[in-house]
What does this fold into?
Amino acid sequence: MQVVATACLVLLLTPLRAAPVTVADDLGRLVSLSEPARRIVSLAPHVTEDLFAIGAGEWIVGAVDYSDYPPAARRIARVGGYSGFDLERIRSLRPDLIVAWGTGNPDRQLQQILRMGIPVYISQAERLEDIPVTLLRLGQLTGQQAVAQKAAGAYRTQLQQLHQRYAQRTPVRVFYQVWQRPLMTINGRQYISDALRTCGAVNVFADARALVPTVDVEAVVAARPQAIISSGGEEGDPLGSWRQWRSIPAVQHGQLHVLPKDILVRMGPRLVEGTAALCAAVEQARQALPSR
Amino acid sequence: MPAHLTPRRCLLILGGVSLLLLLAMLLSLAIGSSSLPLGEVLHSGEAGQAVRDVIFNLRLPRTLAAVAVGGLLALAGCLQQVLLRNPLADPYVLGTSGGASVGALLALLLGAGLLLVNLAAALGALATIVIVFLLAGQDHSATQSRLLLTGVALAAFCGALSSLLLSMAPDGLLRGMVFWLLGDLSAAPWQWPLLALLGLLLMALWLAPVLNVMGMGLQSAHSLGLNVHTLRWGVYLLSAAACALAVTSAGMIGFVGLIVPHALRLLLGQDLRLLLPAAVLGGALVLLLADVLARTLLAPQQLPVGVVMGLIGVPVFLWQLSRRAAA
It folds into this structure.
């Protein structure tokens, strides 16, 4: 009797070729698949990067606009933009997993997708440390645990190294420009402020109320930042207009830095590279500080 | 009924509003999103330079831009209400601003810089002015509803085009486009709007006595020998030019062109010789005060000036209106 029971238990626990898998997504909802996902629709550019980072890129059958990294992602069929996609096209791609973006996708469309009965993983990374967690979970859903663990480990190691190297150095006062017109920045709760802290920099608008506040030029002049940093992507020279304000220390010491496009502003696996680029810019500004 | 118009009364009222405007301008120079010590303005060195930068290169141009744009919008609204003999008319009703927004949004969508955006807005406004002129210019009827209908239809068409452009815009550009539509006085030019305001006001004042007659009704104007047709198009062009200038330099700032002329008409009466300059000064004052609030209420967070103006101005106006009705 006992032998039979043990045999049953062993049979139940033995992973079959296609093992069912259940994973909690970033909102804590359970996502169950009967077998690893092989037809995936990605509803955010950074989700596409996540999937490529864990070796699941070839199984993406549909992605939203601006899914442009790695270059292979450009060939994936488009399903619309992340802030408004074509549900009919998504359905016709017969996906077995949809990876959505909790804060970026419109709630109304997310509800419609959930009603279609296709498993949906909602990603919602909000801190730098959330990204490896998402990578590991997506690894389980796609049967790519080993690659995901490697990617997550590399990310964590690099972030830790940056923190050890820079976090305790002389603080540099930084104005991070999200957008030029309207002039927008971030407050202390936004994840780029975490990256700034990792680099030993201080966000001059950390105390602003809104997560991504619109500010005026006067407030920046008064804050006297020692570096002004932005990410590329806007037309022309996004920081050029600052050069006329000679009273800003960052302008006097030539510390206007435009980081490479996308790496710091996407919540994907390249964020750690973005943080490294940010730290390099902050370090330059630190070297330019007048010695006391 | 407001008292009869005398030079003394004119001078008193206009002088009073001018004084208020001057005080508001000083206020606008003195406060902002930062609490820099104003006393350091004469100090040499970095700190003094920062204060001078803020006051003379940031607050002063913005103050002058608010004055010019507020004045232009109120002037345009005032003329529009006379022209259409309709209390609902505002500077935006005949499509001039709609054309400007289509031009500006298109330029923003194509990634143009600030100067090109302003130029495109001006071209858009000009195009709608010409179209209205071509389509409704031959209207000699007594009711002259064709001008209003043509303008309103064109405004609706421009609205549809703007929505189309907004729906096609990528997310990053959308923010700047919506921001333009809400109206924005930072980095707005002030030199030529201010000059144009003076010129347009003088021309409007020159027409004011005749317009007063026209305001009594087209029949009486005809019987007094006025060429109403030419006069109406003159007023249309003046008002469209004022509106186009305002929208081109600062985007679509609502409310001031509709409410300020109305409120002043309730207070001062119908005579355009007083009403026009008072509306210009009043519009400047109201927009300037709204901008000071928009800059400082949640500083360093900035609010759209049109929103602030609507939220505070409309209740004040409604209160004034109901008081008049009760009296």
